Amino acid sequence: MLDGHTHYTPASGVPEVRSAITRYYRKLGLEITAEQVIVSNGAKHSLHNAIAATVGPGDEVLIPAPYWVSYSDLVQMVGASFVLVPTTAASRFKMSPEQLRKAITPRSRLLMLNSPSNPTGTVYTRQELEALADVVLDSKLAVLSDEIYEKLVFGDVRSTCFATLRPGLAERTLTISGVSKSFAMTGWRMGWCVGPLPVIKAMANIQSQETSNPSSISQYATLAALDGDQQCIEDMRREFEARRDLVCQRLTSMPNLGCVKPDGAFYAFLDVSGHFGRTLGGRRVTDSVSFCQAALEVAHVNLVPGAAFGAEGYARMSFATSREQINGGLDRLAQLLRA
Prior knowledge:
Order of helices and strands: HEHEHEHEHEEEHHHEEEEHEEH
Radius of gyration: 20 Å
Low-confidence stretches: none
Oligomer: single chain
Largest sheet: 7 strands, mixed
Strand order of the largest sheet: 1-7-6-5-4-2-3
């Protein structure tokens, strides 16, 4: 701000930031130009712009479920329809190529992928994504790949940039990311999309009318993040992995709770259906919403109902907080479930 970066910028972002993003993707094996990058006011804004530029009334967007709550609403905001492709804990909440192929109709225009996933923490392997890519290339689908948690993966798991998997795939893939998760810069509201130039230009036209440009100040903060020392990301990734292990170890000792160990992001996705029909702290539990209400009102533990993610019977717990806070919340949850 003191350097004077407080004025309008180009609608798609300043050249320095867009160039830094091209260098970021070059390390992931994706060759793009700065003109193929648009910087927006958070990854959610990037998602909206991408959807608005590619689909409309009469079009269908395929979304594997469970899914991040905003996806379906963003699709409906532009008049398109969403089609959920349900997955299960048995498949580690991963959509199979056969499921994808079966879901495609003449109206299908876009597939939304999210790996690592919010809310499940699922991370598709490279081979699994290649199999999905082959189905995509046999169809007329474009892909919107939300890779915002790409740096937060655990153990031997590695995230994959979907656009790099097959020749010709980059020409029909829009890749979303930003600094909110890996750099813990949620309040700066900086996300981006990279993809085919005609779509990026269309997104820029939309963004120009919506917000004129992304925040100039936040853009230079993003430049500092991308070009700065990256050790902080690895340090935080290790801490999230330790928290993941703590949460999963403690949850397995609680009655009638199931949890697929997440491979990325910072969420545990709990099967709470074993408590349906019970009364917890004087509250009758019949579904994921009533379970989470009982947890909040009685135990003062904040969970998100699985129904919001297209997965009734589940609840999402975030471990993006201190181990002390995590242990305190799990203590109270355990007490509630023993009642």
